[in-house]
Amino acid sequence: MKLEHRNHSRSTLSEPRPSGSGPRLLPPVARLLSPLLLAAAAFAQPPLKVVATSPAGSPALTMRQAVSDEEKHLDTKLSQVGGKDKVYILGLARGLYLAGYGAVFTQELDLIETPHLNPFHQQITPQEAAAVRQRKLENLAVLRKSLRDLWADAAAGLSPMPDTEQVVLAVRLLYQPWEDRSGLPSQIVLKGSRKASPASISVEEQ
Length: 206
Prior knowledge:
The protein contains 4 helices and 5 strands, in the order H-H-H-E-E-H-E-E-E. Strands 1-2-3-4-5 form a 5-stranded mixed beta sheet, covered by helices on one side. The relative contact order is 0.12. By secondary structure, the chain is of the alpha+beta class. It folds into 2 domains: 2-44, no CATH class; 59-205, no CATH class. Helix 3 (59-78) packs antiparallel against helix 4.
């Protein structure tokens, strides 16, 4: 009788469940094999291939490195510009290369480290304002001469760039609200093709 009961149980497990009687349960052996089969299928997939968009030595990578190097060079050289007062760097140089056009570098600075109003210095006297203006005019003359050399250095350092593309160096000069800005530009832009002579490039002041 026990043997007949076991056979009856085995046949019951293999019979399909009637429709509408709930979810169908997999036989124990199938439930055991399913994770193994899924894992085997996953391992059978071909490995993903990683494609390098800018392999080492590619023009894009080389150009990015050249622009980065010139940013650091501009920061170092501009910080040394000036006579008794050095120009005051307000922001690090930023460079951008546009394929088909050229490289553009921007920098923000103050012609000197201008005094600011604060609780201990609440007013700028006319004598102080005049002295600040004079010091800035002196540094402006030095900056104008230095910018052509800086442009030439940047153009020479961008050797991966085609000779016919442009090199633009834009320096923005910031001022305090109380300053007399007559004769003092807010921006100086130098522009020319990479192989141009520094004497022949365009210089625009605004």
